[in-house]
Specification:
Number of strands: 15
Number of helices: 16
CATH architecture of the domain at 391-497: Sandwich
CATH class of the domain at 391-497: Mainly Beta
Strand content: 5-15%
CATH superfamily of the domain at 391-497: Immunoglobulins
Helix content: 40-55%
Largest sheet: 5 strands, antiparallel
Strand order of the largest sheet: 11-8-7-6-14
Structural class: alpha+beta
C-alpha cells in the first residue's frame, strides 16, 4: 500500500476473506469511537469494552453478509454496535435512562462537512437527536430532559428529521412521512411493538427502505465524533483475537499498513442550503488539497517479505524477548500488555525476584496507609436526607382487591413512575389508554396510549402537581385511543400522600 488509503468496504471484503490484518485496521480506526459511543449508551466502562469486543467479533464473522448496494460499510458496522447496545440495555434493568450521565452536545468548527450540517438545526432539536442517538433516550425521557411535553418533543424532532432529509441527498424513498418514520426507527424512538409496526411493515414491503434506514445510520453516526475518543485497553484486542482463534502475533506484526479510510458512497451533503456562516467555517478550516488522481495501491495481506525470526530454545529465555521493538501502530504499553497475554511467562528466578519486590512494596504501602489513617481527623457528621417517594397508589382491576395490577409512585421532583405487576394481553386493534382526574375536577384527562407490559414514566412537566385522592385509571380502547373513556376499566386507583420526611442525622465513618 503506497499511500495508506483504503476504504471501509475493502476492509470488510478482506475480513470476509479471513485476512486478520484488515480486522486490526478496523479496530484502530473505529474502536476508540465505538468505546466512546458504548460508554455513553451503557454508562459503565466494562460494559462498553465488552460491547466493542462483541461488535468487532460480529463484524469479522458476518463480513461476508455485508452488501455494498445497501449503503455505507461504516454505517453497517455502527448499526451492529447500536443493536448490541440496545439488547444489553433491554436485559439490564440497572441501565435506567433517568440516571444516565449526559454531557453537553457540541459540534466543533473543525468537524466534517456532514457533521456541520447539523448546525442548520435549532439547538433544542440538535440536543434531542443527540440524546436519542448518543444516549438511547426515548420520547418520554427526552421530554423530561428538555422540559417539554411528549407531543412537543415529537413535533420538534420530526421537524428536525425532515430538515435533515433536505440537507443530505441520496434518499430512495420520496415520501417525507416514510423517511421520518425510518429516522425515528433508526434512533430507537419507536420502542414498542405497536409504534414500531409501521416501520417493520415499510421495511418488508418497500425494497428501498433498508437502504434509507442505513443512510439514516450513516447520517447519525457522524454524531459519535462529537464524543471524546477513548483508547480501549490492550486486552480488548487480545480477547477479540482469542475469541476468533487468531494468532496474537499478527496483532503485533511489524510494518502493518496503517489504514486511512478513503471516502465511500454515503449520504452526501446537499449543495443548496449551507448558510453564510457555515460556508465561512468550511472555508477557513480547509486543509491542503490532496492528489486523488491516482488510485491507491491495494493493501498487501500476503506473507511478509522477511522470514520470521528463528528462536533457539537452549537458554530457556522468554519468547517475548524476540519482540522488543514495538510496532508503529501500537504504544509501548499496548504492546507490553498484548505480549504478556500472548506469550510464555518469565523463568522462575525472575518471578521470585519480582515477587520479592511486590511483597516489599505491599508492606510499605500498608504502613503508609496506617500512618495516614492514624493522623487523619475524624470525619464530620453528614446529614442524610431521605428521598423516598412522596405519594403512591396501587391500581387494581375492578373486583380484584387483593391483586395489585400496577404500582404508582411520585418522586420528590414530582415525576410519576408506573410499574406493571401483572401481564396484560390485548387483541389486535385494541390499546390501553391512561387517564387521570383530580379530586375536584369533573373532567378526566388523557395521558395517552401506553404499553401495558412496560413501565411508564410521566415527567412532572407533563403530569403537573399530583394531589392526594387523584384518580389514575387504564381503559381498553381502540388502537388509536379515544377522547374520553369508552371501554372497560382495566385498572384504577387513588393517590395517597406518604407524609413529610424529617432529616436523619447519622455518623459517617468515611
Amino acid at each position: 500500500m503506497a499511500n495508506g488509503t483504503i476504504s471501509y468496504q475493502e476492509l470488510l471484503e478482506h475480513c470476509a476473506q479471513k485476512q486478520s490484518l484488515a480486522l486490526k485496521q478496523l479496530y484502530e480506526l473505529e474502536a476508540p469511537h465505538f468505546l466512546a459511543l458504548g460508554q455513553s449508551l451503557l454508562q459503565r466502562n466494562s460494559d462498553a469494552e465488552e460491547l466493542v469486543r462483541e461488535t468487532l467479533v460480529l463484524i469479522w464473522r458476518n463480513a461476508s453478509a455485508y452488501d455494498p448496494s445497501l449503503g455505507s460499510a461504516r454505517a453497517w458496522m455502527y448499526s451492529i454496535l447500536r443493536f448490541r447496545a440496545q439488547q444489553k440495555r433491554q436485559k439490564n434493568a440497572a441501565l435506567s435512562p433517568l440516571t444516565k450521565a449526559k454531557s453537553q452536545f457540541y459540534i466543533p468548527a473543525t468537524a466534517s462537512p456532514e457533521l456541520l450540517q447539523f448546525q442548520h438545526l435549532g439547538d433544542a432539536t440538535k440536543h434531542m437527536i443527540a440524546l436519542a442517538y448518543l444516549y438511547g433516550f426515548n420520547y418520554a425521557e427526552i421530554a423530561k430532559e428538555c422540559h417539554e411535553s411528549i407531543q412537543q418533543t415529537k413535533n420538534s424532532l420530526q421537524e428536525g428529521l425532515l430538515r435533515l432529509t433536505h440537507l443530505f441527498t441520496g434518499w430512495h424513498n420520496h415520501s417525507d412521512q416514510s423517511l421520518i418514520l425510518l429516522g425515528e426507527y433508526c434512533l430507537g424512538l419507536l420502542d414498542n411493538a405497536e409504534t414500531a409496526s409501521p416501520a417493520h411493515q415499510l421495511l418488508q414491503t418497500d425494497s428501498t427502505a433498508t437502504q434509507d434506514l442505513l443512510l439514516w445510520e450513516d447520517v447519525f453516526s457522524h454524531l459519535a465524533l462529537c464524543l471524546p475518543k477513548l483508547t480501549p485497553p490492550a486486552y480488548v484486542l487480545s480477547r477479540i483475537y482469542q475469541d476468533l482463534h487468531l494468532p496474537l502475533s499478527e496483532a503485533l506484526a511489524q510494518g502493518t499498513p496503517k489504514a486511512n479510510p478513503a471516502p465511500e458512497p454515503t449520504a452526501t451533503v446537499s449543495s443548496t442550503t449551507p448558510s453564510a456562516s457555515l460556508l465561512e467555517i468550511l472555508h477557513t478550516e480547509k486543509t491542503a488539497p490532496t492528489d486523488h488522481s491516482l488510485p491507491p495501491d491495494p493493501p498487501n495481506y500476503g506473507k511478509q517479505s522477511t522470514p520470521e525470526p528463528v528462536i533457539k530454545p537452549p537458554k530457556k529465555e522468554p519468547i517475548r524477548a524476540v519482540l522488543d521493538s514495538p510496532p508503529a501502530s501500537f504504544s509501548a504499553q499496548t504492546q507490553a500488555e498484548l505480549i504478556e497475554a500472548a506469550y510464555d511467562t518469565p523463568p522462575k528466578k525472575e518471578r521470585k525476584i519480582k515477587l520479592g519486590w511486590w511483597i516489599g512494596g505491599g508492606v510499605l504501602t500498608a504502613l503508609c496507609a496506617f500512618a495516614i489513617w492514624a493522623f487523619m481527623p475524624k470525619a464530620p457528621i453528614v446529614q442524610l436526607v431521605q428521598m423516598s417517594p412522596q405519594a403512591g397508589a396501587v391500581l387494581q382491576a375492578p373486583g380484584l382487591s387483593t391483586t395489585p395490577g400496577w404500582i404508582l409512585s411520585v418522586d420528590p421532583e414530582g415525576h410519576v413512575l408506573l410499574t406493571p405487576q401483572v401481564r396484560t394481553e390485548i387483541a389486535t386493534g385494541q390499546s390501553v389508554q391512561l387517564w387521570t382526574q383530580h379530586p375536584n375536577d369533573t373532567q378526566i384527562r388523557s395521558l395517552g396510549v401506553i404499553n401495558p407490559n412496560q413501565p411508564v414514566t410521566l415527567p412532572a412537566e407533563l403530569i403537573g402537581p399530583v394531589e392526594s385522592g387523584q384518580i389514575f385509571e387504564m381503559t381498553l380502547e381502540a388502537s388509536q385511543g379515544a377522547s374520553s373513556p369508552t371501554g372497560a376499566i382495566l385498572f384504577i386507583g387513588r393517590v395517597v400522600k406518604f407524609g413529610e420526611f424529617a432529616p436523619l442525622l447519622e455518623q459517617s465513618d468515611v
